[in-house]
Automatic annotation (TrEMBL):
<feature type="transmembrane region" description="Helical">
    <location>
        <begin position="461"/>
        <end position="479"/>
    </location>
</feature>
<dbReference type="InterPro" id="IPR003362">
    <property type="entry name" value="Bact_transf"/>
</dbReference>
<feature type="domain" description="Bacterial sugar transferase">
    <location>
        <begin position="286"/>
        <end position="478"/>
    </location>
</feature>
<protein>
    <submittedName>
        <fullName>Undecaprenyl-phosphate galactose phosphotransferase</fullName>
        <ecNumber>2.7.8.6</ecNumber>
    </submittedName>
</protein>
<keyword id="KW-0808">Transferase</keyword>
<comment type="similarity">
    <text>Belongs to the bacterial sugar transferase family.</text>
</comment>
<dbReference type="InterPro" id="IPR017475">
    <property type="entry name" value="EPS_sugar_tfrase"/>
</dbReference>
<keyword id="KW-0472">Membrane</keyword>
<dbReference type="Pfam" id="PF13727">
    <property type="entry name" value="CoA_binding_3"/>
</dbReference>
<feature type="transmembrane region" description="Helical">
    <location>
        <begin position="93"/>
        <end position="114"/>
    </location>
</feature>
<keyword id="KW-0812">Transmembrane</keyword>
<feature type="transmembrane region" description="Helical">
    <location>
        <begin position="21"/>
        <end position="41"/>
    </location>
</feature>
<feature type="transmembrane region" description="Helical">
    <location>
        <begin position="120"/>
        <end position="140"/>
    </location>
</feature>
<dbReference type="GO" id="GO:0047360">
    <property type="term" value="F:undecaprenyl-phosphate galactose phosphotransferase activity"/>
</dbReference>
<keyword id="KW-1003">Cell membrane</keyword>
<dbReference type="Pfam" id="PF02397">
    <property type="entry name" value="Bac_transf"/>
</dbReference>
<feature type="transmembrane region" description="Helical">
    <location>
        <begin position="291"/>
        <end position="312"/>
    </location>
</feature>
Length: 484
């Protein structure tokens, strides 16, 4: 399908400009709803205290000042005009809500109504505002994108493996909401993309294709393109579009902590990558959160730990715990606590089973796990593994300081040789009960991919990534994804 066929179906370039206004209206309704819910909770549910009669909040504050403050900070975070991953949107909403609540408190103070407003109401307003802003946006975008309404039309220049990654990200993330009109490439490398989308033409035809289709958002996903060709391409199409993005030939480097520095006189751009894990305040923050939440989880799950211990003891002979050595921070070995899920002679059972099953032997070499039936695992052990309950005792490791709640996988000492250069990065950090590998397939992820994921996590660490991974872990465990 060539670009000539699209002449009669030129993109309506007014459609993308409607999205910010629709999002703004949705956010306004979300903020009003949050205030109403917070007021109801404070008055009628008796949250943490006796019945409280809320004084009348002036309409000026309720319907105008408070929403304007929230929307101003939301606008400043660029979530109305930039399409970005939904988790990044949630992060920006969180920061905007915190700053907005601080300003609203100041407005109430200077407006002489702060004394009559409950502090609990203010706290509830912040929490409900964050929740409803996220929920309303998510529902709105789900509806719009399901029916292909107000999607941003884009053309991707390049139809190779990089373009496949870009399209996959767009397809799996509600935050973007884009519609791929087609691709421009001289000779597409991808086998799948030309089957799903039209190839509109060659690189040399990019300028005319963009003019004819009216598409205002272009992504150059051809990192192998020669420098002079890339510059020539940018010079030709940038005046014709609203947004132009390109994927540089830097795939695999840390992206979470990159800052752009512009050297205007030299006409160059520098990318600065921060090592967040090396900052003392981030180490303190991570350790403090581990100790706080580790103790809370331990106290809440003590009855569960006791019930599981009794079930293991009754199911098979042997100890309740399986205490094994793992590689810890600074390459020091530590004892990792887990509930025993295998028979005591598991090593002998494994050796015999692999000798009798060559197919399983190849699987073991790739994943260091056995998919499906594993003769080493007890009846109770199978149930514990499905819900990752066998790892609950690792909370003790977290409290002791041997592990973190989120971190790289705790590797076996015998795996040192197989870890290669990844060991240098991984050993500088505490292993975690959960991590990127846990929410990305668990046991279905190959050993090599686990190493790549753990290295990526460390290089891109932020407290927000930890929060996201903990949230995702809950659903992965509940749905038993990748568990055996």
């Amino acid at each position: 399908m060539k670009c000539e066929k699209l002449k009669t179906n030129k993109i309506d370039d007014t459609v993308p400009y409607m999205m910010p206004f629709l999002l703004l209206g949705t956010d306004y309704l979300a903020i009003l709803t949050a205030q109403k819910i917070a007021m109801y909770l404070r008055q009628h549910i008796r949250v943490f205290s006796i019945y409280y009669s809320m004084p009348d909040v002036p309409n000026m504050y309720f319907y105008f000042l408070v929403p304007i403050v929230f929307i101003a900070f939301l606008y400043n975070s660029h979530i109305y005009v930039n399409r970005m991953p939904f988790w990044e949107v949630i992060q920006k909403i969180f920061y905007a809500v915190v700053l907005s609540m601080m300003v609203c408190i100041m407005l109430m103070y200077f407006g002489h109504i702060a004394g009559g407003v409950s502090r609990l109401y203010v706290a509830l307003s912040g929490m409900t505002a964050f929740a409803f802003l996220c929920i309303f946006r998510y529902i709105l975008k789900k509806i719009l994108f399901k029916f292909n309404i107000l999607s941003e039309p884009i053309i991707i220049i390049g139809a190779g493996k990089t373009a496949e990654l870009v399209v996959r990200q767009f397809s799996n993330d509600t935050g973007f909401g884009v519609k791929v009109v087609g691709f421009i490439d001289d000779s597409p490398v991808s086998d799948d993309l030309p089957k799903q989308y039209p190839v509109l033409g060659k690189f040399s035809e990019a300028e005319s294709i963009i003019k004819e289709t009216g598409v205002k958002t272009i992504i150059i996903a051809a990192p192998g393109l020669e420098k002079y060709k890339l510059l020539e391409l940018v010079d030709k199409i940038q005046p014709l579009v609203k947004d132009l993005s390109f994927v540089p030939d830097l795939i695999g480097i840390p992206v979470g902590n990159i800052e752009i520095q512009r050297l205007y006189d030299a006409k160059i751009m520098m990318l600065r990558v921060s090592n967040n894990m090396s900052r003392w305040y981030n180490k303190l923050l991570k350790r403090t959160s581990d100790v706080l939440f580790g103790n809370i989880i331990f106290i809440l799950f003590v009855p569960v730990l006791l019930i599981i211990a009794i079930a293991i003891k009754k199911d098979s002979d042997g100890t309740v715990f399986y205490n094994a050595k793992r590689i810890g921070k600074n390459d020091k070995e530590f004892t990792c606590y887990k509930f025993r899920t295998m028979y005591e002679d598991a090593d002998d059972i494994l050796r015999k089973y692999l000798q009798e099953n060559p197919v399983v032997l190849n699987e073991w070499k790739t994943y260091r796990k056995i998919k499906g039936y594993d003769p080493r695992v007890t009846k109770v052990g199978r149930w514990l593994r499905k819900y990752s309950l066998d790892e609950l005792p690792q909370i003790i490791n977290v409290i002791k300081g041997d592990m973190s709640i989120v971190g790289p996988r705790p590797y076996l000492p015998t795996e040192r040789q197989s870890m290669g250069n990844h060991l240098n990065t991984i050993k500088e950090n505490l292993p975690g009960i959960t991590g990127l590998w846990q929410v990305s397939g668990r046991n279905e992820v190959s050993f090599t991919d686990r190493l790549l994921m753990d290295t990526w996590y460390i290089q891109n660490w932020s407290i927000w990534i930890d929060i996201v991974l903990i949230y995702k872990t809950v659903f992965v465990v509940l749905y038993k994804k990748g568990a055996y």
